[in-house]
Amino acid sequence: MPASRKQLDDVRAADPARPDAEQAAKRTVATAKALERLRAADPTLRALIDEIGADALGDPRRGLDPDDHYGALVRSIVGQQLSTKAARAIYTRLTDRFGGRPPTPAEVLAEDPEELRAAAGLSRGKVGFLRSLAEHVRDGSLELERLDSLSDDDVIAELVAVKGLGTWTAHMFLMFQLQRPDVLPVGDLGIRRAMMLRYGLPELPAPDEMEKIAEPWRPHRTLASLYLWRSLAATPA
To answer: Do 156 and 216 lie in a common domain?
Structure first.
């Protein structure tokens, strides 16, 4: 069913920061300067960059996330603890229910939770998380238009106040939606495994060990993390 004018206005109102989101989408952490800085800072990372190449990295999430902040958070909730393939399938079922786009906060809250769960193949917990996100956006406790101007730590604090948005999700949002250059997702299993393999560690590193290894990468830890993911041919969901 075609969206009404009111529905389209509601979609736009769901994320007043859309212009900032579009600007962020044009940014990239994979600059020539960042690559040279990483190659000079860490011999192990230099070998990894040379192995993968400076032009073959790309963005492992390109085409997966909506441009707007609200839509990106909806997709992040849907994709939690799922493979990329499964997350894409469920997210597609969800957006198909709303004319090919993420549901607005008003639409999420107007839906019967059980009907939404069954239609999209979501767990009850994730339906609850989507409703929590919608409530925070609607009542103004999560001001999406402010996120681009906040520090990384403040963005994390804003997001984790929403039920279902943890630190890992906040890190993914910083890296892929806001294109922040110096994020190290210490809770990501792929990054931990890549570090273990590339640095010859006896076991998966703890967060403090990861921070120590990554210290020379500052202020380009996001780009280094992309290379570590690519070394496993892994894509964060």
So the answer is: no
Domain presence at residue 21: no
Same domain, 190 and 226: yes
Q: 3-state SS of the chain: helix, strand, coil percent to 5? A: 65, 0, 35
Q: Is there a domain that residue 100 lies in?
A: yes
Token readout for 63 is 């085409």
Report the chain's terminal Cα–Cα distance, integer Å: 29
Q: Which residues contact 144 (CB under 8 A, 6 or more apart)?
A: 15, 16, 17, 69, 70, 137
Task: State the average pLDDT over residues 151-165.
Answer: 97
Q: Residue 162 belongs to a domain with what CATH number? A: 1.10.340.30
- Distance, in Å, from the CA atom of 6 to the CA atom of 27, rounded to the nearest integer, reads 32
Return the C-alpha torsion angle 31, 51, 171, 66, nearest 10.
70
Name the residue with tokens 């989408």.
25
Residue type at position 10: D
Same domain, yes or no: 82 and 159: yes
- Domain containing 97 equals 69-177
Residue 96 shares a structural domain with residue 173: yes
In tens, the pLDDT along 82-125 reads: 888 999 999 999 999 999 999 999 999 999 999 999 999 999 99
Q: What is the pLDDT of residues 18-40, one digit of tens each?
A: 444 455 445 789 899 999 999 99
Helix (H, G, I), strand (E, B) or coil at 234: coil
pLDDT score recorded for residue 59: 52
Measured over all CA atoms, what is the biggest interatomic distance in the chain, rounded to whole angstroms? 58
CATH number of the domain to which 207 belongs: 1.10.1670.40
